[in-house]
Amino acid sequence: MRAFLSSTPVTKPSGAELKRLSSAALQARRSFESFGRPVKHWDDWFVHVVVEKLDSSSRLLWEASLQTSSEFPTLTKLQDFLQTRIRALEAATPRTVSTTATASAKSQERKTKMNSLTTSTPGSSKRGRKCSVCQGNHLFNYCTQFKELTVSQRREHVKKQGACFNCLKDKHSVSNCPSGFRCARCQGKHHTLLHLAESSSAMDSETTAKTQITDNSAATGSTSTDSSVNVNVAVHALATKGAVLLSTAQVSCSNKQGDSLIVRALLDCGSEAIFVTERVARALRLPRGRVHVPVSGIQGASAGVASHSVELMIGSPRDSSMRHHLTSVLVLPKLTSALPSHAVRRGEWPHLTGLELADPHFDRPASVEAVLGADVYGLLLREGLRRGPAGSSSAQATSLGWVLMGHTSTTSPSPGISAFHAMVSYTDVDRTLQRFWELEEVLTEPILRPEEQRCERLFATSHARDPHGRYIVRLPKRTDPVVPLKNNRKEALQQLVGLERRLMRNALLREQYNTFLDEYHRLGHMVSIQANEVHSEDAYYLPHHAVFKKSGPVDKIRVVFNASHRTSSGYALNDLLLPGPKLQSELWIILTRWRLYPYAFTSDIVKMFRQILVSSEDTDLQRILWRADPAQEIQDYRLVTVVYGTASAPYLALRTLLQLADDEGLKYPLGANAIRNHSYVDDILTGGHTLEQALEVRRQLIAILAAGGFSLSKWAANTPQLCPDNESHDKLFHDREGVSTLGVLWRPADDTFALKVASATSTTSCTKRTVLSDVTRFFDPLGWASPVLIFGKIFIQDLWMAGLDWDEPLPDQLQSSWTKFTDTLPELNTLSIPRFAHFYGAESVELHGFSDASCRAYAAAVYLRSTSSSGVIFTHLLVAKTKVAPVKQISIPRLELCGALLLAKLICCTLKGLAMENIPIYALGMGNV
């Protein structure tokens, strides 16, 4: 115990020093065991002493490796960490022979002096040792001449020296070797320098049989530092030696009717979900359920969104009794590239002889039609694992047969790597609310995926303008995989007939519907198709229906085109189109920028999507059928503008506006700035620091949009001069009523914001479903009512903790809490928040941030403090954000740190979003941290 406690602490990251400390701990433990002490209960003490003696960087990595585990770490876990750390340090810090030999000798001498439990051999503490190969002053395992020998010659030399085949130290056998290192190539108990590639198993037996040299001295626990260099070499050799097989199997997929299809499946325990391709779903005519599941892969890169799930049976093509019923199987157009990436040569692998392979054609590249993830992977495994020599594949027994994995002798013709890892994020109601209270980021910097980069390149190279300045764009389509669409005119005709029957029962609805499409045709946004052009295999017809919007005493309708309707090929137009990258700034940033102007106005772009033309090469994908009266002949039309409801429409609209700002920005700089930084979809919220500047912004904004074929309407301003006189009929400037601006109520007359909180749908017999509906209707983008609305988030968590069904009445206690909460909500409608944040003209401006936490939630708020030239101080809440604490109990100090982190991110986003520079910032975390 004295020797262990007095061992020298590690002062800097060093593989040798960490080995010394690790060996001292193991030696002390073995010594206590030899005295019959109950060391199996002493892990806490051992771990504490060892960690206290670690260098600061290693201690930091150790603490990070524990993550949020509440379990006390064991000595075994600490030793595993130290071995990994030692390998990393030695691999990253190659040593010269002389330096290593000296350090090794000094380390050996220190161990002999300090460790009273170690029985050293004669001469083990001598500073210099002669190399048995070249007679130099170093150990032979550091000798260049020794490394130049063949493996057989090295093994013979080690045998003659009576050294251990594992650590190359003197006078102990492999079975008694204290070193935790193993061969980096095959993990056998021998040194990497002694690895025989011809037969790893034979070498292991030879190592064991031929090195049983008995020695009465205790092992010192020191191992060769040279093995770290060989680890690097070995890993590199393995990585480039040949192709790697992934576990594939032939699987029979079948539907409820008994129709089956044999496909190649990838068995992947790194996938959180089960996947099949569109081809499988279509071939088996599997009923689909609507989902919206983002799929991410390596480095969190997005792999798209699964929009459908299916149920199917899987089984073995050779054993009809082996069947598994799979639900919630996600459908994607393509899963991965062909596996293997190229044909591989079947090696001479005796250990695989006679096995019934799950994929008899594993060596031939073929498409993967299914991925069996972790939830079914374990059900398929059977006892049985066969390993072969290095460079050969291993085999795992499964209920589908033996699956192969690992290296082959075939050299890879390219450096490409096939890696499949799928992480899914379910967004159905249940999964969404499970994540409702999890820790989350404020904002993330968008990283363009390859398909998003292709969207940008396509737009940049293909957009054009007609003689009137209007933009003409191409629809961004997927090319890999190819999404086949078939002419669906017959299905569209059936839906039109059904629509006409509904319209005939409602004369007002029929009139409004006809008026909408008549205007569509009159404005040139859709054109008739000649009879000789109707029949086209590449055409896609958009079914359409009415959507009602409450607008005063009269309901207005809008015709919506359904681009998600699937054709007989199993695909819809939205499956073909790319959604493009996110171009829109955060809503709260847009609103906060608007608050910096003393003179403000807002306006809408009229029919923004329909002012952008679609190239004639793509308009056959936007056909519709229509007739104003069932007695008339049905007419085919092409929609020649960007269509709301298509996957690419938001991207094309925003990208076109940004392109307009680039093209006309030199002529209209203030108008271009309004488009880039003060627009949210088709809403413009901008202004000026003076009335003259605001008028100039308005003039340039009208002019730059007109240059692209756009116009503005629905004007509102905090001063009547900013509403164009020639558009007085569009003014929404009222003394008492407010204007809905990005979901926030703005009263232009007194230039204030107000919240509009609707009453709860039900307060007497509430269920989880009705509560969820009410909570999700609360819209407070800037967090003005966060202290109140956080209760709704916490209440949702309580409902989930109670395990209630969707339509089960709430218990009396929860019902009472919810009723008290909803009864107070109307008071939020009395709040009045000044829009102008007194930024312009201030003598000084500061940002102040505050964060705090409780056991249920944490929050952060950012304020703008300004001082006028007359010394008047103004303080405005810019943004606040609240988060519910996770269900798993977390200490309040840690939650306070989460709040501080949230505050730091909010401040950074505010500074970046508002382009504030050289402004004093004060951040205060309330609490004990």
TrEMBL record:
It holds the Pfam family Peptidase_A17. Residues 94-106 have a biased composition (Low complexity). GO terms for biological process: DNA biosynthetic process. Residues 94-128 are annotated as: Disordered. Residues 114-124 have a biased composition (Polar residues). This is Peptidase aspartic putative domain-containing protein. It comes from Lasius platythorax.
